[in-house]
Amino acid sequence: MPEKKEYKVIGTRPIRHDGVDKVTGRALYGADFHTAGLLHGRVLRSPHAHARILSIDTSRAEAYPGVKAIVTAKDLPDAADKVADLGEGAVHLKYLCDNILASDKALYKGHAIAAVAATNAHIAEEACALIDVAYEVLPPVLEVRQAMEPAAPLLHETLKTGSLGETAEEPSNVASHLQHKKGDIEAGFAEADVIIEREFVTGTVHQGYIEPHNATALYNPDGQLTVWCSTQGAFTVREQLTEILQYPISKIKVVPMEIGGGFGGKINVYVEPVAALLAKKTGKPVKVLMNRADVFEGTGPTPASFIRVKMGATKDGKLTAAQTHLAFEAGAYPGSPVGAGAMCIFAPYDIANVLIDGYDVVVNKPKSAPYRAPGATNAAFGSETVIDELAKELNIDALEFRIMNGAKEGVKRADGPVFPRIGFIESVEAAKQHPHYTSPNGKKHHGRGVASGFWFNIGLASSVSISVNPDGTINLVEGSTDIGGTRASIAMQAAEVLGIPAESVNPSVVDTNSVGYTAVTGGSRTTFATGYAAYEAAQDVKRQLIARAAKLWEVDEEDVQFADGEFSCINGKEAQLSFHDLSARLGETGGPVVGSAAVNPPGAGGAFATHIVDLEVDEDTGKVQILRYTATQDAGKAIHPSYVEGQIQGGVVQGIGWALNEEYIYNAEGTMTNASFLDYRIPTCLDLPMIDTVIVEVPNPGHPYGVRGVGEVPIVPPPAAIANAIYDAIGIRMTELPMSPDRMLKAMGKI
Amino acid sequence: MEKFSYVNATNLEQVTSLLNDSGWGEVMVIAGGTDLLGELKEYVETPKTLVNLKTLPGMDSIAADATGLKIGALTTVADIAMHPTIQRHYTVLAQAAASVATPQIRNVGTLGGNLCQRPRCWYYRDETVDCLKKGGEICYAVEGLNKYHAILGGDPVYIVHPSDIAPALIALGATIKIAGPEGEKTMAVEEFFTLPATNPFRENVLEPNEIVVEVQVPQPKPNTKSLYLKAREKGAPDFALASVAGVFEMSGSTCNTASIVLGGVAPAPWRSKEAEAALTGKMISEAVSKQAGADAVKDAQPLNDNEYKVVLTQNLISRAAMMAAHA
User: Fold this and answer.
1) Model-level pTM?
2) ipTM, 2 decimals?
3) In a mutagenesis test of the B interface, which of A289, A620, A625, A744 is the best target, namely the one with the most B β-carbons within 10 Å?
């Protein structure tokens, strides 16, 4: 257990190392990439949500002046039924390849069918219109409950439900069924004095990153493939490329460009393999860019879901049983985050009897991708609304009810793990004592709501190397894409070890040939795991510098002490050197010092958040206006508090958008009718008050500074908190997202 | 987008003669381009020639005197929103202009473009859909997704007119000057817009060889209160789910005359004579304002998904009247 102690760098707020480049527009993003002889690629996408591809005739497009190459699924290696292990679980290679370029069926509107490389982007776009594709249009299935019906149109004729280790006989759109059990659910409900059961529906929403996907690829004549792209994980791109292209991993170099947002949506590859195929065929560098409609229609949103939650409590407020049915839309291929939703849904509470059933269901929508605490927000919308209703029914303060039933160290989750030291109770206490919660709330049509959330966070592998410069600074090389200020939060952990200011660290995010393996920036792992690697690499540097000082002073290494950036001799001999001064003497003591570390830390600490929202419901227009918002969260230890606050605020804003406005609106043919930021409404500053944040610090025992991941959990509580506040304002329970004006007017009985 | 040639206009005669040689869509005019560029990128329009009006001299200013306003068609939406005289005496117009889109769009979008912008309907904007508005057989909104479509005057095309400024101008009794090959003509802004029953393909009376050059607004009488209320799903940028431009000439809380024009609910800005009649000569009370709202929508014919707009419109009218009388 790390002790609470004073730090010199940790907990301060230095200016981020990438700040100047970003605010002056000099940072280089994927679309900025340029090189001699560059060709431009464009992807032809399916106009149908569900269709068999009968033939693709590219002859007219090939003859179009300026066109250099055209690729289809035929240009991909035969995927057959190979299962690829990409670190995040086994994936059918055919599904992976078909999502890049459809082979036999188009499974969603926007599904990539073919791609053109041409001398400019306009010619490429014009040539796409000259590719003749014959389709047999099939009826689409667009909603999870319909897709689960036995008579529903099948997306994959060979997909059979895997359920608790068994595989079904007949094909189905239900890819898998999972279950977590704890205690005796029937007995738990029998003990309960109050039981609430409700059904919830959430819409399909997109991560909404501002920068569209992009990739530039180049095959050198020696077979070396280089890909420049916008990604949350260069090594993950490399792994996917080696599987999809069946090409040796050692011949692929992925260069991560600066990233304009990802939120989980830039882990799966889309245009990267397409650019590589076109580059191979032309022998030229090829750049492929998406536009906004491509992003909405051709990349992973987070799934719509149908959720049933049943919970019971005794009249003195003890939760006795919790049961849920989670049905998530995977999109065109299996792999929704229903598993994560199942892990998170009841995790904040110590409940003896739990039964969780989760269903991963394919529908004719883009294959879903992770989105900030994937699955947990959908699930919490259900559970945290029912918790609120139970508390009201029992006449117990909603936060007090959470404290009474809150999970703490030693409690076993329904999916197995036993909690180490966690800070759920502390985060709820912080909310309960906050002036926001204790302020009056009673104006007509004003309401206050609360909700909590959990996200487990992950560890995974990270590598860092540090070289010492003669002027007392260090160069820190890492493989983690910096989305939310992690150059700073990682640099600060090395700086703390070496007793130097954060400004004395030059962090670089480099390509896959230039640093050890590093997993994606995702799972709220980067400050935790890559920070851990930086800590260890700095310890390595420290050990080597102690040896150098010992050499200079002709003493044993044990006689050299390092504290507060000063090396000193502790065997009586008067000798002292600062980190800065010793750095200047590396040449005379044996040459450069390079420290490195590769870690795979097991102790990721789960994150808990509790949110309070005040809002006003306009009875005339159905519009919900957020008036005040406070988010408390256990960060373990906030390395750079400003970026922790930024992550909390960003997550809350995305959660508010999900709650009130955002959704894919599909017509009966399966076309998304609102594939632009004008019609797909993400919140702007006009829609939001200041989001107040309270950082709670219950150190994670699994990290030297106590870091927990912070990026994801803040998106989890907002939809439920807002629904609970709407109930407080007008006495109506909203069970469908988004809670847009038309739905509000309908719920209020005005229509 | 398709290739096109680009001509910088030097005078009105040149513009109308360039337009005169073609029907709709071959030669198009562009000013701010905030609407047209989207149509070009999405292949909704594929002109061979674009005529840039921004190079026409003297059409981008606001003249205000005791009789009223003259606003050139190239005046930006931002200039209208921020003009001190408009803010003081023509409040509904300033408020409507300020509610348009975002600061960036208001800084380049023009008055003429705002009045002549095309519908935001998601069937119309989809290049693959051959809808009635584009010369096809069917208005797909009728049986399809119609959450944002018309509740009044729809038949046979259920788009809503997206302009915020147009309802304000009509409520203020503005006139519009149009230039064509035979010279200039002036008409009421109210007469400028047409319903799909008259012409399903266009939203106004402009011929392919005509352009808007100026709008004139008479100075409102003393004791006039005017305001623009716009309901939308998010703060910005967003089009109106429903909006109300109201101009009320008041004696205390008694309404002498009222002009009520609705946006976002019909294929053209929708003047509600019913609401005006319910308010004229009345002391504005909660009951009177509610009656005005109810009268305005009594002939509304909502589609499957837009019944909420009926209640929304009703409530906005009533709120506007109460604000004019009591705020």
Assistant:
1) 0.96
2) 0.94
3) A620
